[in-house]
Specification:
The chain has helices spanning 65-71, 91-106, 118-128, 143-153, 178-195, 267-271, 321-334, 360-372, 398-407, 435-441, and strands spanning 3-5, 11-12, 28-30, 80-85, 109-113, 135-139, 157-161, 198-204, 223-228, 235-243, 251-257, 260-263, 283-290, 293-305, 314-317, 342-348, 380-382, 385-386, 392-393, 412-416, 428-432. It is of the alpha/beta class. The protein folds into 3 domains: 1-34; 56-265, Rossmann fold, CATH 3.40.50; 270-441, Ribosomal Protein S5, domain 2 (2-Layer Sandwich). A 9-stranded mixed sheet has the order 6-5-7-8-4-9-10-11-12, sandwiched between helices. The termini are far apart. Bound molecules: thymidine-5'-diphosphate and magnesium ion. Residues 85, 87-93, 124, 127-128, 256, 258-260 line the site of thymidine-5'-diphosphate.
């Protein structure tokens, strides 16, 4: 289609004075044909696949093992990483820490800030204890001057914070517009490839402008990662959604502290409130998957009779509330336990957001445990989805989840009856086909 809105990316065969999608005036531009002149090219780039040297894909460890794991082993020279996230989530903080760590091990690092003055960057650097002499800072918004600085410094790693604040003179539009985002990211990606310079591009996601944000340049980069987490809690998760050099859907877990982001090397330990103490009524432990990584989480339930004629309360933090309502209905119907007259509060310890079925059986265990005021037996984990008939349903990558529970010292795990494997270690595997069976195994009946 020949016209595209430079603000929101809306495409149309017809030109409009005002974009029908986002309402911006005079933003539709004609998409020109590619202007590459190919007639003189004689094909020097041709190579047999056997001649390609994989050493070219040499990775540079960043010094942050969690981040390296996310990238698939480190930064790739010439590779471009898009680092997205909402404002204030901690992108600049993590990238400054990365810059410091990288400059110690792979030469010069250039950190370009289009948002902050050198003084502001220095203030944050002091707070983080960043003081590498190989880390250079440039406060600049004109891409031409950024390129000139790169020519002069010849850094091994470039960080641009953020692509929304840098403007190319080769394209029209204001900094941050779709036209500019594409031009800036494209030019920087080319520069990265031609110099073998690893490049990290920060992209802000704003609630209103999500469509015009970093997502629209994902196709121009090799790796795209996004930082998420609630601002109230100190937990931060960086997730890879695209990776030409490794697996996607990997996650790295961090905690925001007074002096920067700290890696959480053992997320299972972090998300379990209390591993050693006596079990408490209303808590159940379930192995979930974050990306491809199994993590043990603690589900906490508080169930108490609704006073007087009040409307029963249902709250779920970190869990899908509609899923919870459905599970409560299943408890009511299949276990003949009356939860409809009780207030139910559920949460996941540690502030994680869980969006999968593997916690279903654990939620039921935690609710019944709280209602009966009896704890789930010590060192017992629970995993399984639950269907409307109260049957326990299979979950993805069960073997890895069982292994994680075993590794964390759990002695027993309730799993869907369809599981046919063997214990990976010392852990006892207890297959259950229905929630009635599960409640009996948990000694809650
Ligand atoms: P920042 O990295 O500036 O976010 P972004 O670049 O994604 O917009 O992080 C901002 C928040 O992080 C701010 O609220 C202060 C907090 N913070 C800490 O808690 N500890 C620290 O060491 C630093 C540098 C920031
Ligand atoms: Mg920032």
């Amino acid at each position: 289609m020949p016209f595209v809105c430079s603000e929101c990316g809306y495409r149309s065969v017809k030109w409009y004075g005002r974009c029908p999608n986002c309402g911006a005036w005079d933003s539709l531009v004609e998409e020109g044909p590619a202007t590459e002149d190919d007639s003189s090219w004689i094909g020097e780039g041709l190579r047999a696949i056997t001649e390609i040297d994989l050493a070219e894909l040499k990775r540079v460890p960043t010094g942050l093992p969690e981040f390296d794991r996310l990238l698939g082993g480190g930064l790739v020279p010439g590779g471009v990483v898009l680092f997205g996230g909402e404002p204030g989530i901690g992108k600049s903080t993590l990238l400054l820490q990365l810059a410091d760590s990288l400059s110690g091990r792979c030469g010069k690092v250039l950190y370009v800030s289009g948002e902050e003055s050198e003084g502001q960057v220095k203030l944050r650097a002091d707070r983080l204890g960043v003081k590498s002499a190989d880390l250079f800072v440039l406060s600049e918004q004109a891409l031409a001057r950024v390129s000139a600085a790169i020519e002069r410094l010849e850094p091994s790693v470039l960080i641009v914070d953020s692509i929304q604040t840098v403007r190319s003179s080769r394209a029209e539009g204001a900094a941050g517009s779709l036209r500019q985002l594409r031009a800036v990211s494209g030019e920087l990606a080319q520069l990265a490839k031609s110099r073998g310079m690893a490049t990290l591009l920060v992209g802000h996601i704003t609630k209103e402008g999500a469509f015009a944000g970093p997502k629209t340049v994902e196709h121009l980069v090799d790796v795209a990662v996004y930082m998420e987490g609630s601002r109230a809690e100190d937990l931060r998760i960086v997730r890879s959604v695209k990776n030409r050099f490794g697996a996607t859907n990997e996650v790295a877990v961090f905690r925001m502290t007074e002096d920067g982001l700290r890696e959480v090397e053992n997320p299972s330990g972090f998300f379990l409130d209390d591993l050693k103490g006596e079990p408490r009524p209303g808590t159940a432990v379930a192995p979930i998957l974050e990306g491809t990584r199994p993590i043990l989480v603690e589900i906490q339930a508080l169930v108490s009779p609704t006073g007087g004629y009040g409307v029963p309360q249902r709250r779920a933090t970190g869990l899908d509330v509609n899923r919870v309502l459905l599970l409560l209905a299943v408890i009511d119907k299949r276990l003949s336990i009356n939860v409809s007259g009780a207030d139910v509060y559920l949460s996941i310890a540690g502030g994680l957001e869980v969006r999968e079925r593997g916690t279903d059986l654990g939620v039921i265990g935690a609710v019944v445990s709280s209602l009966r005021d009896r704890p789930i037996p010590k060192r017992t984990a629970i995993v399984g989805g639950v269907g409307l008939a109260g049957e326990v349903r299979p979950v993805k990558r069960l073997g890895e989840r069982i292994r994680e529970a075993d590794k964390m010292g759990y002695e027993r795990i309730l799993v869907p009856a369809s599981f046919k494997g063997r214990s990976p270690g010392k852990i006892d595997i207890v297959p259950v086909g229905s929630i009635e069976r599960a409640i009996a195994e948990l000694e809650l009946d």
